[in-house]
Structures are given as C-alpha cells and as structure tokens.
Amino acid sequence: MGKTFAEKILALKSGKYSVVAGEIVTVSPDIVMSHDNSAAIAKKFKQIGIDKVKHQEKIIIPLDHCVPAATEKYASNHKEIREFVREQKIENFYDINIGVCHQVLPEKGHIIPGTLILGADSHTTTYGAFGAFSTGIGRSEVASIWATDEIWLRVPETIKVNIEGEIPPGIYPKDIILHIIGDLGADGALYKAVEFSGKVIKEMDIGGRMTLCNMAVEMGAKIGYVEPDEKTIQWLAPRTNKKYEIIKSDLSAEFEKIINYDISDLEPQIACPHTVDNVKPVSKVTGTKINQALIGTCTNGRIEDLKIASKILRGKKISSKVRLLVFPASMEVFAQAMELGILQELVKSGAVIMNPGCGPCLGAHEGALAPGEVCLSTANRNFKGRMGCKEAEVYLASPATVAISSLYGEITDVRGDLK
Amino acid sequence: MSIKGKVWKYGDDVNTDVIFPGKYTYTITDPKEMALHALEDLDSKFAKEVKKEDIVVAGRNFGCGSSREQAATCLKYAGVGAIVAKSFSRIFFRNAINQGLPLVQCKEAAGNISSGELIEINFEKGKLSCKKGVFDFPPLPELVLGILKDGGLIPHTKKILKIEKGE
Ligand code: SF4
To answer: Do residues A366 and A237 share a domain?
Structure first.
C-alpha cells in the first residue's frame, strides 16, 4: 500500500522509516512563524526558564495584525517584539511595512515544497499551496518549539478533493472553496489533510491555490495541499535558491475519502452571517444592502485579486452608500498594483487604499463595523463579532462579487455585468 | 483525576470569536481579565455566573476558527473544570490541553446532557456520569495526558528540559 503526502512528510520529519494515519509523532519543524502574538509567546518562552531560543534561524516573525499600531497598547506590543528579536538575533523579522504573514512568507522565499511549517495562526494552512505540510498551532506550542525544537503531531488521514470541469465566467477560486466548505460543513474535514487535485487545480494559478489552502481550515482541515508542478517551480524560482524535494502522495496511497466536484455550472458563491459554511449562491441574496466592502486579507489581497476588482470598477464610481476599503496583502503587491496603475484607478472609483496588513479582518482597527452594519468582504471568516461588533453582519465572497456589489451598494451577481 | 460540576450547554461550531473576541487579542494580556470576557459574544451571563469546576458541554467542532490560545485560557481562568463535546476543532483541542484544561470527546454523552445538571467525569477511567446514565469515552493518548497532568505545555516543557539537563 502506498503512502499519502502527510504520511511521507511526517515520517521524514520525525526520523521514522514509515508512519500511518492516526499515529502520534514527535517532529522538528523547518519553520516556526508567529506575528503580533510574538510578545505573548516570548513571555511564555521566558517562563520555561531558558534564555536562548534553540534555532533562531527557523523563526520568522512578521508584524501584520495591527499595523501601524492603533493604540499605545499595540505599540508597546510591537516594541516588545522588536526587543525580543534583537535580543535573540532573529534575522527573519519583518516590521510593519511588509504585509500579511501568509503572503509575505512565500514572497520572501521562505516556503518551499516538502517542508514542515508551523505557525501561531490558523491560516498557516495557506503554504500547502506550495506542497508544504503547514498548519496552525497555539502560542504555548510556539514557545515550547523555540525552546526544544520539537512538537507532537497526529498523522492525519487524507481526503482528496478532485475538482474537474471548466471554470465558468464570473467564477473564481474563492467561489470554488466557498462551495466546497458549504457542502462539507465547518467540520467536514476536521483533523484531516485535504489534498486538492484535478484539472481545475492544474490550471489554477498559485494565488488561487493559496486561496483554497488558506480556507481549508474553515472546514476543520489540518492542512491543505496542492501537488507542486511546473507553475510552483516557476513561481519559486526568482524567490529562493534553496534546494527542495517535492513530496507527493503515491498513486496507491490510501485516502480516507475521494470527493469529486464538477464546477462547470457553479454560480458565484457567498458565505452568509455568521458562519463560513452558511454558503449560498449569490443570486439567493442579491439586493442585500451593504455599508462596507473589503478587498484584501490573506485570502484575497493578491495582485490577481486587485486586477479582477479594478477591471470591474474601472471608470465607474462606487455607490455613495458604501465605503470600499482595499488592503493589498503585501508591500510587494502594493508596489505592483501601483506600477500597473491599479491603485490609481481604484482611488478614482472611490476606494480607500490602506496599508498592507490584516486591516479590519479580526476587528482590531482600520474599518471596524458599527451595530446594524453589513460588510461584504473577501476575507475568510464571518463569525459574530469578527469585525469588531457582534451586532454587525459579515458576508464573504470573491473580489469580483465584492467589487461589483460596491458599485450598486447591495449584493450583486457579477455575471449580470458580464453579459 | 476527576471532577464534578454544573453544566453550561451550547450547540455546534462554537467558534473562538464568540469565546474570546478578536478585538481583545492584543489588548488583554492578564488571564484573569481574559476570564471576564469568556464566551462574551455567545452568552453574556456566562462570565458573570460561572463557578469553579463548572463544565461546558457542546456539540460538534467546539473551538473552531482562530488559533488564539486565549479562547482556552479565558475558559480555564473562568474556572471551567472540563469541556465535553461531540468533537473539538484541532487547534482548540491542543490549546486547551496546553493550558491544562481537560477535554472529553464523547458524542453520546454530549448529546444526552442537559444544561444546569450536575455531572461527574473520571479521566483515568474514561467515565462520565450524568442524569441519563454513565458514558465511556476513550482516554487521551499518554503523551497528551502527560502534558495535562503537568498543568499544561509550559510547565511540561520546563520539566522535560530539567530532566534532560539532569537537574
Ligand atoms: S488577514 Fe485575517 S485571516 Fe489573514 S492572517 Fe490576518 S487576521 Fe488572520
């Protein structure tokens, strides 16, 4: 019997000849990422009672969750992190001018296939788009890895999600993943590795694959994974000269389930308040008034996403009833969008261009909602209170749906515009 | 290890944003203060009325969403003695263990317990007693139980490093 990607990589990283799903192994990760939560992690690390982190070269810390600092408290948090970074001689530190962790780490060449990456952030699953085994952990666990270079992991069973068909006009990777999450449910892949495959994935660009793996955690998955191919290799080539080994599931590997989708007839999808799996076709909620529209976050703040939005908004004005906030996911994306004239166009349409970072995604600052307000966002979570107010509503959709809806001030089916 | 406590019952998919809102994640750092906001956006009565060793019982996928460990910390410091659920979200499961907060994954039990009743859990034996009877649940893996018994991951790591150094 063959082995899955998850079984192969966890055997490798635990120094065993072979492991099977369900087994608990002790592994040593290649990279440990933490962000604005690094000050709290540093405190826990000090409680362990040692002075030096074991492998400072494995640690990556970008500041992104509340940048620039919104209040004295946030500023002090950042200051503590900068001091810790200096004290521990952590080289891979990115200050507030870089962008969201999940965009920055791949861009800066830290993510390569066949590696084990752990991050103090649930959307660490994003890096599976590059064929890494990558998942979120808690703060105590990061502190403990800093001290010992070790952690226990359970080898997950693997669900293969095959996506076939032709992508219809107006449909984007976000619609596909929302559809899958709506279908499988918020715990549809609990504890499992989810391997995305099929014709649609082969044709999909890296940004789209990142969107899929980013949201895999919204159905409970431990990791998302896309088998690296020529596109992956080309994307990585200018960013890293690290050597890597591509690890794939064997053809005879034992998958817990294989789920097939044909998306040829898929309509634009939207996650309605207050759960990510409350997914409907956009056509079921068209006309719903929105107060704020958000394009950005680690799910859909890439150059591909900004291009889609600007194409829809070009030469048009957004509704006077809507505030449109655009957060490029990283400074690289920001600069590219500037060079391509995208930011200028978006500004002319009435958008507010914000600095790269998480923005209001977790309700900390920069565009929080008021009671009774509705936000249509390209982010990955719409839980009650997520954007700072429990009496506000958040809908999640593709950048195209968000852009078109901001023109009309209400949720709108982008396909109407394509006719 | 066993506990007895009053039940607070909730449904499926209780997420970390309603357990501990994201807006507090960088502004509240004291665990005792975290406890004052436990389950704030789900049940405003909870933090005010919860007693030491009370037990939270929920449906599927408890703790889904963010990796924020404060979701486990706030419940622990609010006095919660254990959480019983049909299933737990992966990161929350780890965070709770790492905070020394015991978890019981048991579909049958979680479905048969009602709010307000007194239940008793014996972790070594893997037995949960409630009004509707006694339910068995599989004990946690040894390695995981070890972390729990040491009071969480930080004290556990401290202990291991000391042993390695021969102290
Ligand atoms: S953009 Fe949102 S989901 Fe992504 S890392 Fe930041 S807060 Fe988390």
So the answer is: no
In chain A, positions 243-302, which contact chain B (CB-CB < 8 Å)? 275, 277
Report whether residue A358 contacts ligand 1, using a CB cutoff of 6 Å.
yes
Per DSSP, the residues of B121-141 read EETTTTEEEETTEEEE-PPPP
Q: Which pLDDT tens digit goes with each residue over B42-77? A: 999 999 999 999 999 999 999 998 889 999 999 999
Question: Residue A138: pLDDT above 90?
Answer: yes
ipTM for the predicted complex comes to: 0.93
For the four alpha carbons of A369, A373, A376 and A381, in that order, the dihedral sign comes to positive
Q: Candidates A121, A294, A305: which one to mutate for ligand 1, based on the most atoms within 8 Å of Cβ?
A: A121
**Domain that includes residue A331, residue range:** 269-417
What is the tally of structural domains in chain B? 1
Q: Give the pLDDT of residue B27.
A: 87
CA dihedral (A238, A242, A245, A248) positive or negative: negative
A39 to A96, A114, A205, B100: CA distances (angstroms): 15, 29, 35, 21
Q: Is residue B55 part of a domain?
A: yes
In chain A, residues with a C-beta closer than 8 Å to the C-beta of B67 are 120-122, 124, 136-138
Please tell me if the CB atom of residue A33 comes closer than 6 angstroms to any atom of ligand 1. no
For the domain that residue B46 is a member of, what is the CATH number?
3.20.19.10
- pLDDT higher than threshold 80 for residue A418: no
Examine the domain organization and report whether A116 and A221 are in the same domain. yes
Q: Quick one: A278 and A256 in the same domain?
A: no
How many domains does one find in chain A?
A: 2
Over residues A224-246, the pLDDT tens digits come to 999 999 999 999 999 999 999 99
Task: Looking at the CA of residue A329, tell me the nearest atom of ligand 1.
Answer: 1
